[in-house]
Amino acid sequence: MLRIIAAACLAVAVGGCATAIRGTTNQVTFASEPSGAVVTTSLGHSCVTPCVIAIERNKPFEATFRKDGFEHAVVAVRTEISREGGTSFAGNILAGGLIGMGVDAASGAALDHTPNPVVGRLAAIVPPAPPPATNRRPVRRPAAARTPVAVLTAPPAQMTASVAVTPAFR
Prior knowledge:
three-stranded mixed β-sheet; five-stranded antiparallel β-sheet; single chain; 22% helix; alpha+beta
């Protein structure tokens, strides 16, 4: 009976410490739209999406996504106390006491990274549009001085015009 009580106390003592249960790193998933982007964190980690990196729970960071032909995207990732981490941290009240709380606070074991997964949405770089086509008509230049094709031989006083008008329809 004494062994069962000792084993239960040991399980509660170990179970109350978030560092022992959850560890000091968090698996952060990275994805991008479109996939295949290189993601680099401000902590020095790097991979090609989609990928997963183990990052210390107590360190917020920025993730920068880059891909040729696309504008780069930056996503801020913060840390916050998760439900599971808070429960494990609170377990220190039952077993572990101030020492367990101090270890959990220093390691960030009660924290998780948010957002997780981290998604970088990359916008395509659109080449500049060609200048609009102008609908110009060719410039007309004034005609050169014209030379007469035929020369009149009769003086203008002797020229008379006669016009005969005939009806077009009868």
